[in-house]
Amino acid sequence: MTASTRYPLLFSPLRLGPVTVANRIVFSAHLTNYAEDGLPTEQHAAYYAARAAGGTGLVITEEHSVHPTDWPYEKLIHGFNPAVVAGYRRITEAVHHHGTPIFAQINHNGGQASSMYSRLAVWAPSPVADPLFREVPKAVEPADIEEVIAGYALVAGHCRQGGFDGVELQCSHSSIVRGFLSPATNLRADEYGGSLANRARLLLRIVEAVRRAVGPAMALGVRICGDELIEGGTTIDDAVAVARMVEGQGLVDYINTSIGVATASLYMIEASMAVPPGYAAFIPSAIREAVDLPVVGVGRFKDPVQAERALHDGQCDLVGVVRGQIADADFAAKAKAGRTDDIRLCLSCNQECVGRMGLNRWLGCIENPRTGREAELEHLPRPLPQPPADRRPVNGRRPAKGRRTAKGTKPSFGEPKRVLVVGAGPAGLQSAAAAAQAGHRVVVVEASDRPGGQVALAASVPSRAELGDLVRNQLVACRAAGVELRYESPADTASVLAEEPDAVVVATGSVPQAPYWVPATSIDGPGGAGRGSGPGGAVVVDVVDVVSGAARPTGSVLVVDELGFHQATSVAELLADRGCTVEVVTPGMVVGQDLGITLDLEHWNVRAAAKRIRQSTDLVASGIEGTTVQLLHHPTGRTETRTVDWVVLAVPGRPADDLYFDLRRRAPGLPVHRVGDCVAPRRAHAAVIEGQRVGAAL
Fold this sequence. Notes:
Layout: H1 3-6, E1 14-16, E2 19-21, E3 25-27, H2 42-53, E4 58-65, H3 84-96, E5 102-107, E6 123-124, E7 138-139, H4 142-161, E8 166-171, H5 176-181, H6 196-199, H7 201-214, E9 219-225, H8 236-249, E10 254-258, H9 282-290, E11 295-297, H10 304-312, E12 318-320, H11 323-327, H12 331-336, H13 354-358, E13 418-422, H14 426-437, E14 441-445, H15 453-458, H16 468-480, E15 484-486, H17 493-498, E16 503-506, E17 510-511, E18 539-542, H18 543-548, E19 556-561, H19 566-577, E20 581-585, H20 601-610, E21 614-616, E22 619-625, E23 628-633, E24 638-643, E25 646-650, E26 654-655, H21 658-666, E27 672-674, H22 684-697
Parallel strand pairs: 3-4, 3-12, 4-5, 5-8, 6-7, 8-9, 9-10, 10-11, 11-12, 13-14, 13-16, 14-15, 16-27, 18-25, 19-20, 19-25, 20-21
Antiparallel strand pairs: 1-2, 17-26, 22-23, 23-24
């Protein structure tokens, strides 16, 4: 089935003023942290060009600052600096090479910022401190307003010189314009405050100034927030009215949309998998009914089916697909070719995109090791040509011709190798796919009856099902590359050597490990499904045992969170749903503290309150006797106790590395590599990156 019949609206052209887009898929503006010294880089050009090559209809770059008072984070593009123009040209030429239009988003973040980098006072409509930055801004004076407007015009001119096809004004989730539009942050009593018409005055003046700067040959768009999701903030009715004002000027070619405020309600802007896809569609839908301009809809569209449905239902005219194209640069091309099943679906886990950005690192992707490294592609191993027919595997085995001439020696340089991967978790599957794509013959053996390892387990708990797409995506890649997968095939040194591999990748993961304070008599089973710490004692188990079904706690349960991520919170919800009385204790200041950077913390707290899950912080588990658990409150040194039926441990495990070291000892001439948790227990992104590196380098 062709794209024209399967996705007829998604792959139809549309005019945005002087610019025609070939399809309705937009790679919308988002931060990348790729800038250096305030200037765009070669990585920007390669990153956007990869999505253009992948078939997206329109690229909109991350924001470019219009004024020196706007420097909220280190790696912001300083669009007001004339030196940016050369970098702009590199970006636009790279994208235009693929026939794709590209717009630049320009902005001033206003009070949603800090003076840490600029050493200048933050500017905003009123002295209202942002809840995240907590810095009281300077209320801009008339001369300051003129400077801001001139700054927008200046940067728009730089964008024109740099070859952009259009400019988008970011007036939505983090902008001085949003600050003026919102009654929550605009307390002014002059001509820029009070009524909505007054609060919109700055926006309308900026539109006029930018249109003069870019002329009629460039497209101009405005991105507005439909609902700030804060007390006394902008509502959808306000947004619709502003959209009408903008259209009434006759200067703008399209309207983009957003939801939330990038600091107060960021968890709804870059929503995690806890939020349903298309959750913000009511905003473009309402605006589209009120104006004739094309409207862009956003809100976790992760596959072309969802995007087509939004267009069919009249919710929007174009669909912003950001994380979907971060995960798979070829999202649009695969959809157009009818290869929807081959799309590497975004997990909305936010670990390597939003999460890395929150740690001031460059944007990446948990399942796509190339994202964020596009400019280095020439240094990465590329797939080798397929071997001649007489040298390809037969029934998963290599023909006699071309085998190693002596045990423990490698084939000649360039000859496809027979690679055995032990373990079908994310590290093993990524290794297998990368090695097979490089031209090797790959077999994966997995002890269980299914792939995915601990990722598959994690996907079985409440609100985490989409994590399973990581396994699904890796399996698609493995099958396309010809990887042989064998389940219910436990491996030991003898069975590995019997395969006569040229190289082995050990991806056997990790196993739970009880902490020092748990008596050895308290645990058994695959991960610690316990017998109790004596007659009538509490049963101690690992989170893996509960999720896998090896243990089924009842009654009162204490979950010990020493990992600070989804393990403890997920199992707590699972047990609460089963009727257990659940308390989570952690030595940290917040239960699941790392959920903050993935924007899951707010949703967890809401659900925990609804399910009556108790959360206790600053507590270090230090011992257990019978049904009593001792807890040290480390800020004060006092001891607390809990009397419970079960204890569930979300604590560091240990590498399952016995096979690796045994192979190294018994087959010294055989190249043996290890990846993922059997190197050191970490999170899924480390397994994927390590698997890619090792598999591609074999």
